[in-house]
C-alpha cells in the first residue's frame, strides 16, 4: 500500500464525519507523510497502523471534541455515543477482543437504559399518583370534606414535587449520558492501546 491508497482508504472510512473534519484529518496525515519524505512512506504506514485503526481514533476523538463543545445537547451526546461505538466496532480487533467490546457495550447500554427508565418511571408515577389523589379528593368532597381536603392537599404536594423533580431528573439524565460517552471513550482508548502494544 502506498501513500495515495492509504489516504484514499482513510477518507472512505471517515464518511460518517462532517466534510470539514474529514478534510482537516486528511490534511494532517498528508503533512505527516510530507514531513517523513517519500523514502519513509512504508515506515510511516506501518507506524500509523491500518486506515481502519486511524479512522476509528479520529471518529472517537471527534465525538469527544464535539461533546466538550456542546455538552448541553442530549442529541449531540447520543450522537457522540454512537460515533464512539462505531469507532470501537470499526477498529480492527481480534475476534475475542471484539466480542468482549461488543458484550461490554451491550451490557453497559442495558444498565444505563434501565437506570434512566427507572428514574423516568419513578418521576412519572409520582406525578400520576398526585393527580389521582387530587381527583379522588374532588370525588369525595361532598361525602367527607376533611378526607377530601387531605387527599387534595396530598395530591397538590405530590404533583408539585413531581413537577419540581422533573428538571433535576432531566439534568441528571444528561449527566449520565455524558459519563457514558466518557466511559466509552476510555474503553475505546484502552482497547486501541492494548492493540498497539500487541504489535
Task: Give the tags.
199 residues; transmembrane helix; DUF1700 domain-containing protein; transmembrane; mainly alpha
Please outline the helices and strands.
Layout: H1 3-13, H2 19-36, H3 41-48, H4 51-69, H5 74-90, H6 95-139, H7 145-198
Helix pairs in contact: 1-2, 1-4, 4-5, 4-7, 5-7, 6-7
Overview of this protein structure:
This is DUF1700 domain-containing protein. By secondary structure, the protein is mainly α. It has a domain of about 110 residues. It is about 85% helix and about 0% strand. The protein is built from seven helices and no strands. Helix 4 packs antiparallel against helix 7 and helix 5 runs parallel beside helix 7. The protein is rod-shaped and about 95 Å long. The mean pLDDT is about 75.
Range of helix content: over 70%
Q: What is the makeup of the main sheet? A: none
| Oligomeric description of these chains | single chain
Mean pLDDT, to the nearest integer, reads 77
Short summary:
With about 200 residues, the chain is mainly alpha-helical.
Amino acid at each position: 500500500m502506498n501513500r495515495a491508497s492509504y489516504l484514499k482508504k482513510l477518507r472512505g472510512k471517515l464518511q460518517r464525519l462532517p466534510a470539514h473534519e474529514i478534510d482537516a484529518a486528511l490534511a494532517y496525515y498528508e503533512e505527516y507523510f510530507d514531513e517523513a519524505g517519500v523514502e519513509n512512506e512504508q515506515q510511516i504506514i506501518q507506524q500509523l497502523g491500518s486506515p481502519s485503526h486511524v479512522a476509528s481514533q479520529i471518529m472517537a476523538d471527534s465525538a469527544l471534541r464535539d461533546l466538550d463543545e456542546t455538552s448541553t445537547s442530549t442529541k449531540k451526546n447520543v450522537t457522540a455515543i454512537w460515533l464512539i461505538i462505531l469507532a470501537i466496532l470499526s477498529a480492527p480487533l481480534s475476534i475475542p477482543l471484539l466480542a468482549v467490546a461488543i458484550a461490554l457495550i451491550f451490557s453497559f447500554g442495558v444498565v444505563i437504559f434501565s437506570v434512566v427508565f427507572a428514574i423516568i418511571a419513578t418521576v412519572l408515577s409520582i406525578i400520576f399518583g398526585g393527580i389521582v389523589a387530587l381527583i379522588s379528593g374532588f370525588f369525595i368532597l361532598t361525602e367527607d370534606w376533611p378526607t377530601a381536603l387531605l387527599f387534595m392537599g396530598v395530591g397538590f404536594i405530590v404533583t408539585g414535587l413531581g413537577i419540581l423533580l422533573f428538571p433535576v431528573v432531566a439534568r441528571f439524565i444528561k449527566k449520565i449520558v455524558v459519563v457514558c460517552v466518557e466511559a466509552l471513550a476510555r474503553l475505546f482508548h484502552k482497547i486501541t492501546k492494548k492493540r498497539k502494544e500487541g504489535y
